[in-house]
Write a structure and sequence with these properties.
The structure holds two protein chains of two kinds. Chain A is 51% helix and 19% strand. By secondary structure, chain A is of the alpha+beta class. Chain A has a three-stranded antiparallel β-sheet with strand order 1-2-3. In chain A, helix 2 packs across helix 4 (75-88). Chain B is built from three helices and three strands; from the N terminus they run αααβββ. Chain B is an alpha+beta fold. Classes of the chains: A alpha+beta, B alpha+beta. Chain A binds chain B through residues 11-12, 15-16, 19, 22-23, 26, 30, 33-34, 37, 40-41, 43-44, 47-48, 51-52, 54-55, 57, 71, 85, 88-89, and chain B through 9-10, 12-13, 16-17, 20-21, 24, 27-28, 31-32, 35, 38-39, 42-43, 45-46, 49, 102, 104, 131-136, 138-140.
Chain lengths: 144, 144
C-alpha cells in the first residue's frame, strides 16, 4: 500500500517530462533550420558580391600590358566593388552587423559574409550571439 | 473511494498527452511549412537571377528566370503559379543584359497555414515569405 502511494502521479510527471524533451528537440530543430536558412540567404548575398567583385579587373595593367589569357583582378578594386554592391542592395539594413571578407587570387575572388543571427528560441543563459557565414567565389575567364 | 479512482490515471494520461501533443504537432507543421516555403523562395530567387543573367538574349531571359525558379520551387513542393516574380534592373530597367547592369529578382509567396479551413477564404491565416537576389551582369561582357 505504501509503495502504491509513492508512485501516484508518476505517469503525469513522465508525460510532462517527455513533453519537455520533445519541446527541447523542437527548439533545436527550429533554431538549426533558421540558421541554415540564414546561411542560404548569406550564400546568395556572397554570390552576388563575388560576381560584382569579379568585375574589378586591373584596367591599367590591361591597357598598358595588353590582355593575355588572363585578366588580373585588382584586390583593392575588388574590395571596393564588394562594398559598393552591399551598399547598393542595402545588405547592412537587412543584416545588421554584417561583415565581409574578400580574398583574391589573380583570376578569382572569394567573398565571405558574416552576419549575427537572432535565434528564434535562444536557450536561457545563452549570452553569445550566433554568427552565420556565407561564402562564394567567382572566376574571371577571358573569352574570345 | 479508492476503487472508484482505479483506471483514471490512464484516462488522465491520455488526455494530457493529447492536450500537449496536438498544439506541439500543429506548431511543428506550421513552422516547417513556413520554413519550407522560405527555403524554396530563397533558392528560387538565386536560381532565377543567375538564369536571367546567363540568358542568350533579352527576350528569352524572363521565361528562363521563371523556369529556373519553378524548378527550385518544385523541389520544395511549392506551386510556381502562386509565387510572384519581379525582375528589376538598374541603371536601365529596359535593358537588363547590358554591361554594368545589376539584375534584381524578387520573389513573394503568400503561404496559407496548414489545416486552415477553406471557409475562411481570403481571411485564412497566412504568412508572406519573400526573398531577393541581386546579380551583377558584369562590365566586361557583351551586350545581349
Amino acid at each position: 500500500m505504501s509503495r502504491r502511494t509513492a508512485e501516484e502521479g508518476q505517469t503525469t510527471l513522465l508525460l510532462v517530462g517527455f513533453f519537455l524533451v520533445a519541446a527541447l528537440l523542437v527548439v533545436v530543430v527550429v533554431d538549426a533550420s533558421a540558421a541554415y536558412l540564414r546561411r542560404q540567404h548569406l550564400d546568395a548575398l556572397a554570390d552576388g558580391a563575388a560576381l560584382a567583385a569579379a568585375d574589378a579587373i586591373a584596367g591599367e595593367r590591361v591597357y598598358v600590358g595588353g590582355l593575355d589569357q588572363r585578366a588580373e583582378i585588382d584586390p583593392e578594386l575588388a574590395r571596393a566593388h564588394v562594398a559598393e554592391h552591399l551598399r547598393a542592395i542595402e545588405a547592412h539594413r537587412e543584416y545588421p552587423g554584417l561583415r565581409y571578407h574578400v580574398r583574391t587570387t589573380p583570376d578569382s575572388v572569394e567573398v565571405s559574409v558574416v552576419a549575427p543571427l537572432e535565434l528564434p528560441f535562444s536557450p536561457p543563459g545563452w549570452a553569445e550571439q550566433s554568427r552565420v557565414t556565407g561564402t562564394a567565389a567567382a572566376f574571371v575567364q577571358v573569352v574570345g | 473511494m479508492r476503487r472508484g479512482d482505479e483506471g483514471t490515471a490512464l484516462v488522465e494520461a491520455t488526455w494530457l498527452a493529447l492536450l500537449l501533443l496536438v498544439p506541439l504537432v500543429y506548431v511543428l507543421l506550421a513552422v516547417f511549412d513556413v520554413q519550407r516555403a522560405s527555403y524554396g523562395v530563397s533558392g528560387a530567387a538565386r536560381a532565377a537571377a543567375r538564369a536571367y543573367s546567363l540568358a542568350p538574349d533579352e527576350g528569352s531571359a524572363p521565361a528562363r528566370a521563371r523556369a529556373a525558379a519553378a524548378v527550385a520551387l518544385h523541389d520544395q513542393r511549392i506551386d510556381a503559379e502562386e509565387v510572384q516574380l519581379v525582375v528589376s534592373c538598374r541603371p536601365a530597367p529596359e535593358n537588363c543584359l547590358a554591361p554594368g547592369s545589376v539584375i534584381r529578382v524578387e520573389l513573394r509567396h503568400q503561404l496559407r497555414l496548414p489545416l486552415a479551413p477553406a471557409a475562411l477564404g481570403g481571411n485564412a491565416p497566412s504568412f508572406r515569405v519573400e526573398a531577393s537576389s541581386t546579380v551583377a551582369y558584369g562590365t566586361y561582357r557583351e551586350d545581349r
